Amino acid sequence: QVQLIQSGGGSVQTGDSLRLSCVASEGNFNQFIVGWFRQAPGKEREFVGAISWNGDTYYADSAKGRFTMSRDNGKKTGLLQMNSLKPEDTAVYYCAVDVTGRFYEIVVRRDYEYDYWGQGTQVTVSS
Q: How far is CA 40 from CA 1, 107, 121, in A?
C-alpha cells in the first residue's frame, strides 16, 4: 500500500506562486506515473497534468505555460510548481500515482486509472 503525503498548499494573491509536493512512502517510484488533479467547490475533479517516470509530461490547457511538473525519483517525490496563479485555480489539489499504467494522454487524464491518492491540499488564490 503506497501512501502519498502532500504538502505546499496555502492562500496566495493573484500572480503569486506555490509549489506542491507529493512524497510516496514506498514502491518503485521511478516506475510510477504521477498525476495531479484538482477539485473546486461544486465542481468535478479535473486533470491538471501527469509526468512519466522519465519526465515526459502532459498538461491540461489551463495549466500550460504556468504550471510545471517535475520529479525526484531518488526522493520518491513529485512536484507541481504553479506560477501566475489566478482565482480560478482555487481548489483542492491531489496527487496520485499509477503504478502499472501506460503513459498515453487519453489514459493519464482519467482519474480512475490511478491507484493511490494523496490527501489533498487546499490552494486558495484571491484577487
A: 28, 22, 12
* Amino acid, res. 54: N
CB burial class (10 A; 0-12, 13-18, 19+) of residue 105?
Answer: exposed
| Mean predicted confidence (pLDDT) in 77-89 | 98
- Amino acid, single-letter form, for residue 86: K
Distance separating alpha carbons of residues 39 and 20, to the nearest angstrom:
15
Q: Cell for 38? A: 484538482
Grid cell at residue 112 = 480512475
67 within 8 A of 80, measured Cβ to Cβ: yes
| pLDDT tens per residue across span 29-48 | 999 999 999 999 999 999 99
Angle of CA points 38, 33, 106, to nearest 5°: 70
In the predicted structure, residue 126 carries a pLDDT above the cut 90: yes
Instruction: Answer whether 34's CB lies under 8 Å from 57's CB.
Output: no
Neighbour tally for 28: CB within 10 Å = 12
Mean pLDDT computed over 77-96: 98
- CA 19-49-77 angle, to 5 degrees, is 50
